[in-house]
Amino acid sequence: MFLGYIFLGTPSSLAQNPISLHSENPHYFTYKSKPTILISSAEHYGAVLNQDFDYKKYLSVLKQNGFNQTRIFSGVYCEGSEYDIEKGKKFDWSEVQNPLAPRPGKLLAPWARSNTPGYIRSGNKFDLDTWDEAYFRRLKDFISEANNHGVIVEVVLFTAFYSPNFWLNSPLNPINNVNNVEDIPYNEFHLPKHRKLFSRQLDMVKKIVTEVNAFDNVYFEICNEPYWLLGTKGDDSTVKEQQFLPELDTWQQEIVRVIIQTEKNLLKKHLIAQNIANTYHKVSTLDPSVSILNFHYAFPPQCVEDNFAFNKPIVFDETSDGVNAPNRRREAWAFMMSGGAGYSNLDWSFVTDDASGLGRNPSGRRRSGKEVREQLKVLADEMNRFDFVKSRPIPNGFFRNAGDGFSTFGLYVPSKEYMIYILKEKNVSIDRAELELPEGKYIARCIDPISGVILKTEMLKHNGGGVATISLPLFTDDLLLRINKQG
């Protein structure tokens, strides 16, 4: 027993510290006493709440590819067929392979079912006064299995509901519980003015934070895509863009306060992430208790440079079209070579009936994520062979012959090693790299980011005081250039 609950991990992990910011370079992480970045190609957040999903098989795939992060939603939100809700037509659940859309009777949430029928997705309504021990057993077993596979779990406490139809699925919607919680519009779920509902939200945060406190491989995200909390462009014609509003900040700050207060008297203290924006946003002020800045669809990666001064990890936390290997490879390399601390691809090949990610589900759409995982593994391997803790982003002007048609992104450890990603934006020819290198002897390796194969090796002696030139092999889309000073 540990603080009143059963810990399913190994007792030795109690002597460790949770994933934390690296003491020398807080743009990156420390985990199990090692410098750490987060690279993953992960399922659509339903591994715990969807009882049909085989998370042991899924986690083994992550381990096989050297990936170390996954996201999970808490169970406040799930998906399904909006068409089924609106039209009342029968829906073939075997066709829904989205892990975040559990089939009837297969949703697990933090709250137990009551004896009253009527949950909109089949089964009894929820009783918000009673926790579901089966849910917390599965949650802790998932985190324990993830720990055994070297995977860190981002526990996402809340998310935007996007439309009235998604709000209809939630256990906290008054139609789905027996507790007389307020009946509110979907886009007011995250406003503190609804005190009864807000109290239930905070109770859930306290419960989850307490239950997972013993684990080191956990950090919390306050809310997924909070900038859509008051509605999306697709649902509300008055919404034109992402919304960064004071009342939403107030709500998030209160969630942070409750996490901190709950852990105050517990053994371990965990990092807190805030989802900042889709694509780009320059943050003006940040809650000092927030340790990680999460962005979605962050290409080009300008958000890294423009928020780097916060001295905190910046993570590319969700992608689109997650089995498109060429696009995911390019954006992942560009982001990490700009100083990013993590890249988490949303991999749609992991589905309810096929946790292998190989497109073997018996029905529904079949997509394999094998190619994208192989290519992201090259990124993970190369980054972990680089002293990223001592690195900094390469300044503008270092790559002298940068011209129209291609971009360069890079990290360097001054006078020691350099890692430069060259990305063609159109069909142009580039046969050399002209670089500002200090005097010295160097070995330069040109590497294929698709396969990790070394395409060319060159020894270079540079006398300083001018531009060093390295010849490049022919390449179609992108190339990695690694330069190490000798002696």
Can you tell me about this structure?
This protein is of the alpha/beta class and 487 residues long. The protein folds into two domains: 11-390, TIM Barrel, CATH 3.20.20.80; 394-486, Immunoglobulin-like. Helices cover 21% and strands 25% of the residues. It contains nine helices and 21 strands. The strands form five sheets. It has an eight-stranded parallel sheet. The protein has a six-stranded antiparallel sheet with strand order 14-15-16-21-18-19, covered by helices on one side. Helix 5 (195-211) packs parallel to helix 6 and helix 8 (325-336) packs parallel to helix 9 (370-384). The longest helix has 18 residues, at 246-263. The N and C termini lie far apart (54 Å). Residues 1-15 and 82-87 have low confidence and may be disordered.
Properties at a glance:
single chain; about 475 residues; alpha/beta; TIM Barrel; Immunoglobulin-like; 8-stranded parallel beta sheet; 6-stranded antiparallel beta sheet; elongated; disordered N terminus
* CATH 4th-level superfamily of the largest domain: Glycosidases
Proportion of helical residues: 10-25%
CATH class of the largest domain: Alpha Beta
Largest sheet: 8 strands, parallel
CATH architecture of the largest domain: Alpha-Beta Barrel
Number of domains: 2
* N-end to C-end Cα span: 54 Å
Mean pLDDT: 92
Number of helices: 9
CATH topology value of the largest domain: TIM Barrel
